[in-house]
Olfactory receptor 52I2-like
Amino acid sequence: MMLGLHYNHTMEPPASFFLMGIPGLQFSHFWLAISLSAMYTMALLGNIFIVTVIWMDSTLQEPMYWFLCVLAAVDIVMAFSAVPKMVGIFCTGDSSISFNACFTQMYFVHTATAVETGLLLAMAFDHYIAICKPLHYKRILTPQVMLGMSMVIIVRAIIFMTPLSWMVSHLPFCDSNVILHSYCEHIAVAKLACANPMPSSLYSLIGSSIIVSADVAFIAASYNLILRAVFSLSLKKAQLEALSTCGSHMGVMALYYLPGMASIYMAWLGKDIVPLHTQVLLADLYLVIPPTLNPIIYGLRTKQIRE
């Protein structure tokens, strides 16, 4: 009976977790806090600016700007879900986060990233229609089609993320409650469980790989068709503008996809292959760099928004 009582006690979830920040780089936490704060401020101001301009200007009520507005809102959610806590850890050492808050943060961060990859695909499709089929643009991208695409993107992210959050939150935590990460990243949390975290980790790896591979393949196909259409023209100026636009878009996408997928595969391989601080730093940059750059690349480089 005493053994049974002890077992039940240890299976209770911890009241809170403690986020370590970036293990092995504690001496750099202050400078990381300054950098993150600057990028977070730029991300918030830039994305709020984009949403406000598109919302208030009646001339920007087109599919491209609608997707950009939703992307800016998702970037705000993604950055706000994790970065303030990360800055608090680096600045003040306040690393405590409650059990429920940890899994809420996990859900919003990973759902937002899944929505963002879908929006990048939708925007690539929008660019393809605008350049390759301009006469059919308004007939193809009707408000109903845009709403349907947005709902599919959001539902896909929820369908993927809900089982993952459920699997990790229902693992028994009976040993350490120190998360070797700057935020509640699901693999870092799952590793603290007394049970085998392999099912949730495998689900995350396979699901992320399928979603990202499919989206990247369609995005690459869209931009390939765009470039082929533009280079079939004889206008040198149009070719240079297309190269500049597509190049900047692909650069931002690379900064979004590469750190994200690298952090997932590195966490799967383990710290014996890649240093733990490298894994955590990549995951942190994955949450803050795209929200900082998206308003500049997709927004301020657009002539209508600048005007």
User: Anything to note?
Assistant: Residues 1-10 have pLDDT under 50 and may be disordered. Strands lie at 16-19, 96-98, 178-179.
